[in-house]
Design brief:
The chain is of the alpha+beta class and 459 residues long. 37% of the residues lie in helices and 20% in strands. The strands form three sheets. It has a seven-stranded antiparallel β-sheet with strand order 13-10-12-11-15-16-14, with helices on both faces. Strands 5-6-9-7-8 form a five-stranded antiparallel β-sheet. Helix 8 packs antiparallel against helix 13 and helix 13 packs antiparallel against helix 14. The two termini are 28 Å apart. The relative contact order is 0.11. The structure holds flavin-adenine dinucleotide. Flavin-adenine dinucleotide (FAD) binds next to strand 3, helix 5 and strand 9.
Length: 459
């Protein structure tokens, strides 16, 4: 089919005003938040109704066109970098919250709903949706599902997967596949949602999503603990978990990140501290008081030079504002950043922090380390200038070494950012070649022409 005829076919599905073929428009969809080469697609289309997702998939399949679904394009692994001859499918117009069911505590949403808007809508009905990626102000729920995103509350409340009760998605033929239900328990059929969550747009296009909601915690208390040795902070993490306390949030920041965030947002962080922990406990008021007191004591026992409790909501917001500023603050230091998310069992956090310091020294690179220490999920962030080829090569070697060290500590390549294009070649190192081959067979069975987000996850 000629290019013009193809555009007419897509226009017939989504309307002429929702098909984009000008290079200037398409540039917007050529990259994401990963520091990887961009790629301008041939076309972008913006469905206005759910069934159009299936019709676009079927047309792409019929014509053998690579199809990359795009939520807000904030992923950090190259997951939405399209093929040059491919189609980008935008979910931004499918942004309705269809139902918030208060008695049964679930919601039904479209894939383009913005995460933070959904959180607010649920809270307005007295319900709580915990997954809170740092990008929540712009990320979509469809993108969150496809990446199995986590956030600051992962330690106590889990990640996106833990809140998916049901899902419908379109296969490459345009068929609507349903899995899960609106019930708390469901043992009907294969757990296809388990397969689809984290599939990074390679197995199907998400339509309607059913999400679990829970009662919000009655109260919360936040605190910051400062250390003159980074080991003191990482050992505190292990001590808190060993005490059988699960804070809602347990975040780590090294000195470089503290200084950079303070310079960026002036929230009053202790720039002299070697490291700090940002901690929040939530739940019943009596339990919160008890756990906060125990944690304060543990911080002191592990050598904290100061522990500051937030005394009101404004101070508490300041603590989390500081943490959420870490990525934008680091990102403005140099033209390029690589933000990794290799993850280790949490008892290995002290060893991983030490390994990251050694890697920074070995490759003469600046690595700011912060992240979800309670989950074993750190974000070592390398700031550099990719135009300096020699420096860029050192960054590549340092990242390879980060993966090696995390795997050697029984960790995993990605805690929450997915593999995308960035980590494909490392997959076999973690799961073995047989698992890669099996995954490719599964993909070939579901997507025989290989049109869905080619090159991602399994190559
Ligand atoms: C500043 C910043 C902070 C971040 N903090 C976190 C964090 O704390 N935790 C975390 O986990 N991540 C974080 N991220 C990464 C990113 O925001 C998440 O991966 C997020 O879930 C991506 O959502 P999105 O809507 O932007 O998806 P996109 O980037 O548009 O897409 C991500 C993947 O999902 C696929 N996809 C999107 N929609 C669909 C659909 N409807 N059907 C099938 N596949 C689909 C895409 O093809 C792609 O593979 C952060 C990123 C930034 C820039």
């Amino acid at each position: 089919m000629s290019a013009k005829a193809l555009i007419r076919e897509f226009e017939a599905i989504v309307g002429a005003e929702n098909v984009f073929s000008d290079e200037a428009d398409l540039l917007t969809y050529s990259y994401d938040a990963a520091e990887l080469p961009s790629q301008v697609p041939a076309l972008a289309v913006r469905p206005q109704a759910m069934e159009q997702l299936g019709q676009v998939s079927a047309l792409c399949n019929q014509e053998g066109l690579p199809l990359t679904v795009r939520g807000s394009g904030t992923n950090l692994s190259g997951g939405t970098i399209p093929q040059p001859d491919g189609v980008v499918l935008l979910t931004s117009a499918l942004n309705r919250i269809r139902e918030i069911n208060v008695p049964d505590m679930y919601a039904v949403v479209e894939p383009g709903v913005i995460t933070a808007q959904f959180f607010d809508a649920a809270l307005a009905q007295g319900l709580f949706y915990p997954p809170d990626p740092g990008s929540q102000a712009v990320s979509t729920l469809g993108g969150n599902l496809a990446e199995n995103s986590g956030g600051l509350r992962g330690l106590k409340y889990g990640v996106t997967r833990d809140y998916v009760m049901g899902l419908s998605f379109f296969d490459t033929q345009g068929n609507l596949i349903k899995t899960g239900s609106r019930t708390v328990k469901c043992a009907t059929g294969y757990n296809l949602a388990g397969l689809m969550v984290g599939s990074e747009g390679t197995l199907g296009v998400f339509g309607e999503i059913i999400l679990k909601l829970i009662p919000p915690p009655a109260t919360a208390k936040a605190m910051m603990a400062m250390y003159d040795r980074a080991e003191g902070a990482s050992e505190t993490v292990a001590a808190i978990i060993a005490e059988r306390i699960l804070p809602a949030t347990l975040e780590f920041m090294d000195n470089f990140t503290i200084r950079t965030v303070e310079d960026y947002s002036q929230v009053g962080l202790p720039v002299e501290a070697a490291a700090m922990l940002l901690i929040e406990v939530d739940g019943h008021p009596a339990q919160v008081e008890e756990e906060a007191a125990k944690i304060e004591k543990l911080c002191q026992q592990m050598g904290a030079t100061e522990v500051k409790l937030a005394t009101d909501a404004a101070q508490r917001d300041k603590v989390w504002e500081a943490r959420r500023a870490a990525i934008p603050a680091l990102a403005r230091l140099e033209p390029s950043i690589v933000l990794e998310d290799a993850t280790v069992p949490r008892s290995q956090i002290p060893a991983m922090i030490k390994a990251l310091e050694e890697i920074g020294q070995e490759f003469k690179l600046t690595i700011g380390t912060f992240g979800h220490a309670g989950d074993g999920n750190l974000h070592p962030t390398i700031v550099f200038d990719k135009r300096d080829q020699e420096q860029a090569e050192r960054v590549t070697k340092a990242v390879d070494t980060i993966f090696e060290r995390a795997l050697a500590l029984c960790g995993t390549l990605s805690g929450e950012h997915g593999l995308g294009l960035r980590k494909v070649e490392f997959l076999k190192n973690e799961v073995g070649q047989a698992s890669v081959v099996w995954s490719r067979r599964l993909k070939a069975a579901l997507d025989p022409k290989g049109i869905l987000n080619p090159g991602k996850v399994i190559g």
